Amino acid sequence: MQTPDDKRLIGRRPLLGGLAAAAALAPTGAPAAPMTPSQEQLGSLLQVATRAQLAALDGSPGQAALLTEPGRQGFFVLREGAAPGQDPLQGLTIPSERGSRHWARMWDGSHGMPEWFGARANDRSAAATNRAAIEACIALCPITQLAQAEYLIADTLRVSISNRTLRGTNFSAEPPYNGGTRVVCTDPRRDVIRVGGTPNAIPSIIHLEALTACWSVDLVPPPTGREAEAPAAFRVEHVLTSRLERCFALDPLIGFWFNGAINTRCIGYGVTRFKGYRGGGRDFVRGVWVRGKPRRFAGGNASLYLMDGNVSTSEAMRAAFYMPMGIYADADFADLYILGLETFQIAFPITLDGAGGDFSGGHGDVHIRSLVIDQIIGDGITIRNTNPLAKIQIDGGYIQIVDSRQDNKGLWLENGGGAITVSNLQITGEDSSSTSIGIYAKNRANVAISDSVIVENIAFPVRVERGCARLSLGCTVNGGVMRSRGHAAIAVDGASQSVLRPKLTGNPGAFTAGVELLGSVHDRVSIDPTMVDPMTVPSGRKVVINGKAVTASGHYSGNGDRAPEGAGVMVSGVVG
């Protein structure tokens, strides 16, 4: 099986006595048919130490020569015709001084190394020239293979040509993060790697693999409110069909930025912040920023898949950042898939905020699945300001609230239209504050929550404020070991046309009530407390309406009094 290291050694193996399959570059710049020196040619093989010596060699067309110049070493063959003009750094072709001829590198026609074009790995003095060498390799080689080393660059490395792959040799996801391929920018105000072109020149099919992007100097946070001006480790913009696999951002302000991208898959990505930055605005973290304004396509990005990612900070730094976010999508964010995200010590793991969006369907087809959100001191999933055509699904995951930040929420849904469905989600508190909230909804209609579990130490398991019409609530609340008691498990203020059918278990007297309705706006609300364990609430308080306990099935008015059929609240299943 061929490994990335094997691919890098094409062109070096001849030095060890074996010739790799090779192809020479034709005068037009297109790869020619594979060519291997004959035994006669090998017998008279010439060897030179520099490109200048190779250019000065005299020979007949077809003559092979071995260049041993460090980094550029490899076999070359003499060809008729002038050297192609698109290789000024002489990575694949070297003009001959003996008439209209050139020496063409013998290679496989696919895998190239930036060292052929003058790049020098692990050399801090090469930062001014490495970017040009890597980009020259990308321009002429379908696959650019980097070493397991560090490449310093003084400016953003751009991958803007269709059908190109930039591949590292290894991926390092554990400290000290130096075991793989690292692309390191020396300018604190520049992106490290940018994928894509311009709005008028959009390349397609670009792949990045096994790369760590970082900076050699401390970054400078922009002024508060201008976070979008910060540099990104990976900026993906104006590209069709790109794939980033096992790419890692180390100590960024923004790890991955997406805008104007179509059919993008970011797989096995990682973002970690250990250090803090001073100067400029407040230090912040955006692991992934799905930028929806200016809008490109249906929702800023069309068909963006963020799969199996990890965003984390050190425990010592987690409270130092301003609004640290794992994944942040703003304005328009249609066709977004967040699958298998894991965060650690990130206060706001997922935030979707549609404020400022300008497309009527810009919040549709958003799927969030299979999460592990660990040790948050903020709000686990926040969804705000969606438009009427929004369709958002949350399915499966774990959210752990810790520490003592007031009013931290596992799931926060506020403002906007459309529909949100939530299922198979576990929200748990561990030493969380006395004001922590499991699920919070306000001015957010058309929410359906089913088979979701809230366990241990959540002071307010479910809080629903006004403006939450057509709420379907069928979650399980478990009142286990709790820091704070004295609250209802489900507290609802003004949810018309809603069905409340929770399951409630836990320690005796964990909650003051099962379902408590507050306020007067309770038009056509159906409550079924059949699955409320009577041990968890005081006797007769499975359902409470504005302070009055409901002890019998039937219709009730907003103040808790019995009412004729057709009144605002219908209670069923009350026994004891």
Describe the structure.
The chain has 576 residues and is mainly beta. The protein has 3 domains: 4-112, no CATH class; 155-373, Pectate Lyase C-like (3 Solenoid); 377-576. The protein contains 4 helices and 43 strands. It has an 8-stranded parallel barrel. Strand 40 and strand 41 form a beta hairpin.
Task: Please give the structural blueprint.
Elements: H1 4-8, E1 23-25, E2 31-34, H2 39-43, E3 46-48, H3 51-56, E4 64-67, E5 74-80, E6 93-95, E7 101-105, E8 111-112, H4 127-140, E9 143-145, E10 150-153, E11 157-159, E12 164-167, E13 182-185, E14 193-195, E15 204-215, E16 232-250, E17 254-267, E18 270-273, E19 284-290, E20 302-307, E21 310-313, E22 322-330, E23 336-339, E24 342-344, E25 348-353, E26 366-376, E27 381-386, E28 391-402, E29 409-416, E30 419-430, E31 437-442, E32 447-455, E33 460-464, E34 472-479, E35 488-493, E36 498-500, E37 503-506, E38 513-518, E39 525-527, E40 543-545, E41 548-550, E42 554-556, E43 569-571
